[in-house]
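From the shared-data thread, chain only:
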Amino acid sequence: MKIIKTTDYYHMSRMAANILSAQVIIKPDCVLGLATGSTPIGTYEQLIRWYEKGDLDFSQVRTINLDEYKGLSPENDQSYRYFMNEHLFRHININLDHTHVPNGLESDPVKACEDYNRIIRENGGVDLQLLGLGLNGHIGFNEPGAAFEKETHCVDLTQSTIDANSRFFDHMDLVPKQAYTVGIKTIMQAKKIVVIASGENKADIIAKAFWGPITPSVPASVLQLHNDVVLVGDEAALSKIPE
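Structure, as tokens:
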């Protein structure tokens, strides 16, 4: 694992964007695995700035997003499809038909998961996967459990995740309790993985995930087994890693 320590959130975002942009330049038709949440917003903003300067071309890029809330439409401003459109896709020259997010309106979990697994296979898998890190160690919506989930599945969100997501909703009752998410196996099959983390509140889980035992109770710990992981974090987030 390679560790890139940055001074602050802005620097972390720029360094992560550097890695993603290099992937696009080296392989213009690459498949990017993308994440949502507050942490990657700065990375996406930097990619947009470089695109607007003429430094990047996304016309051949394809994307696979990690997850989507079950029951939310793409037009819902809390859906992850809406998030990606607003924070990245509509600001760059990517073909929206080449951007993929699980179908949150598919009520049949088996069909929703099979459909998304097929999309991932048809696109040849992920070249570079961008990951945030939940406070309980979840990656995507792979929550702590008794085993590592393999492929796309419907997950019951833990209360800690629901509580963390509630800041985006007007009322706690509106926070979805389930989501479709790609599995650990799919994440681990990405050729390269970039984990981004910012803030002191991520320090404990980073130390546990990357220097503790590999266990499904800390889903991100499985990343220790991947042969090409880059951890990009600011000083606060990396403050508790071993010397």
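The helical segments are 9-26, 41-52, 80-87, 109-122, 159-165, 184-188, 203-211.
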